[in-house]
């Protein structure tokens, strides 16, 4: 038996910047991997990492050939662990689409420990719309809460706000009652959408993207950053005493040109977020909170649905910053 998958292979005519190439292929079912739980995939999504992998960039898939896709939503096809055939499940990260075959495939085998049963009230399509981006946004909100940043603490900033993580972070924080400031490079195009999601203030990312002093006027009680580099340095420099900034991404760069001053003079905490290796209990907690705290309809206007083959061109759009919100891949289309 075979199934369809977006497979990333080494490209003999590739370059250093693009050593791989991806294509839609019919592959043998054995290519779904050798983990215990077989999932019939209904939906996946295109996250930033998936875009890099599908565009043939290095650093995501170390041992091609491999099906891409760090998210998979579908039904269990063969019972394993605490799961029965037909259970609706979601997997985010856990190495799929990086170290083991991914969810941009009609079938994938996954480690049951990383699998979460779809919570009541979240449809498979919406679970894919949430995807790793929404899971990471929720992990970031949980980190703010654990460090005492609560609604009423003061304004909370979200950087990269028009992107996947940012969009869902804005929606979650606003629904929880936080005073949200959204930073985006697309104020004119995306400002209205971000306000509709609940941002009280929208600022131009250029205000945060340049070189800045190590300590600046304190503004935010907390922040969710998916941008890194100078942006994160400026966010730390503008965080108020005792505030917390979560860091999950590197859209501007992997560097962090800062000093210890925000930490030793304002008691600021920098909390790292890693969705890929999140332990099972944290996965369950995050999905339960997504079911409780994310307005299920909020993503409908911020999400486009594309067929499996469409993910290849969508990847270039994501890397060029032309996509806002989330991209769901209908793996069966
Ligand atoms: N640690 C984890 O577990 C984890 C999980 C998920 C994602 N991530 C990382 O988080 C980041 C965001 O992921 P995503 O899926 O939300 O990606 P995305 O949908 O492509 O959004 C990224 C956003 O970052 C902003 N941006 C892009 N280039 C920028 C630049 N040069 N300077 C400042 N801002 C820039 C843009 O927002 P505006 O248009 O609003 O300016 C863009 O929409 C990526 O680096 C991704 O790898 C990490």
Automatic annotation (TrEMBL):
<keyword id="KW-0472">Membrane</keyword>
<keyword id="KW-1133">Transmembrane helix</keyword>
<feature type="domain" description="Enoyl reductase (ER)">
    <location>
        <begin position="14"/>
        <end position="329"/>
    </location>
</feature>
<dbReference type="Pfam" id="PF08240">
    <property type="entry name" value="ADH_N"/>
</dbReference>
<dbReference type="InterPro" id="IPR051397">
    <property type="entry name" value="Zn-ADH-like_protein"/>
</dbReference>
<dbReference type="InterPro" id="IPR014188">
    <property type="entry name" value="Acrylyl-CoA_reductase_AcuI"/>
</dbReference>
<feature type="transmembrane region" description="Helical">
    <location>
        <begin position="127"/>
        <end position="144"/>
    </location>
</feature>
<dbReference type="Pfam" id="PF00107">
    <property type="entry name" value="ADH_zinc_N"/>
</dbReference>
<dbReference type="InterPro" id="IPR020843">
    <property type="entry name" value="ER"/>
</dbReference>
<dbReference type="InterPro" id="IPR036291">
    <property type="entry name" value="NAD(P)-bd_dom_sf"/>
</dbReference>
<dbReference type="InterPro" id="IPR013154">
    <property type="entry name" value="ADH-like_N"/>
</dbReference>
<keyword id="KW-0812">Transmembrane</keyword>
<feature type="transmembrane region" description="Helical">
    <location>
        <begin position="156"/>
        <end position="176"/>
    </location>
</feature>
<dbReference type="InterPro" id="IPR011032">
    <property type="entry name" value="GroES-like_sf"/>
</dbReference>
<dbReference type="InterPro" id="IPR013149">
    <property type="entry name" value="ADH-like_C"/>
</dbReference>
<protein>
    <submittedName>
        <fullName>MDR family oxidoreductase</fullName>
    </submittedName>
</protein>
